[in-house]
Amino acid sequence: MSNLTAAVREKVIGKILCGEFLPxxxxxxxxxxxLENSISRITVRRAFAELESAGIIVRKRxxxxxxxxxxxxxxxxxxxxxxxxxxxxxxxxRFVESVSRVCESEDILLALGIPQDDKASSQAEIACxxxxxxxxxxxxxxxxxxxxxxxxxxxxxLGVNMxxxxxxxxxxxxxxxxxxNAAAVKTLCRAAINDGCEELIFINFSDLAIxxxxxxxxxxxxxxxxxxxxxTIHRCKRYMSSEEKKEFLQTLALDRNRKCGIIGVxxxxxxxxxxxxxxxxxLYCIDHLPELSDLNTLCYAQPIADMAxxxxxxxxxxxxxxTGWQRSICRFTGELVR
Length: 338
Known about the structure:
alpha/beta
């Protein structure tokens, strides 16, 4: 492939990734593209032929050439994986470690991408760099729900296999591996009732928009309403000063005469709010953090190793299925750990 042909190919790919050419859009005619970029029509024709061969564009004679608008899978052997994750913490660290072990056991090269901030836009930039350097299989631990879903859809059009893990649920362009959040919340609620709790409080983050937290909060509201259990939902900021934390705890208005079960949307909520057990209260959360043992917290531990292995297997399946791939979702249940 000549340098000029490669340049044309990369230019078209760049325009697709940035959204200038959307799935299904009609591309300029070869002659117009050649005139616009001061290159020969032969060069454009060669570049378009390579893009068509890769499934990125589709030629529909006599109407013209279009950006592909179907989600197909990259069908070569799984040799490398790009893992785009959030800032390191105990839970994400265990997931990265588990994926790394699976890749090592199967002789798969793992490229790790961690943004400087927990922003979806930063994760998209990393995924773009990985794809531009030939990484065709990516696992994404979405940092937040955002407007970047169209970008990942375009990445799929370019033939990048993707699996999203845990926090954000993608559209039909990628597989998803996550926890059965409804089952997890119901299990914690039942445990609290069995422990003698007469009132349940669910605490979520107010400044973190992710699907998993939304599912957990919704499951709590539905379960307590169905079972006619006294349940309230409170939301706090992820990062609070000592004074803000004190004020938030006061808003919980804990009834000292009734045993209360406090359920955190995850382990980080409990860790950041409580230095000791509130009187006549029991603490529960999703995720198992060893440092919560001092608080005697009952945790719903996720099977991280199994989930990581499933994510890798899903990428393998995408490679096997190629054009026959269809999106799948795999949900896991965990276990209670005191």
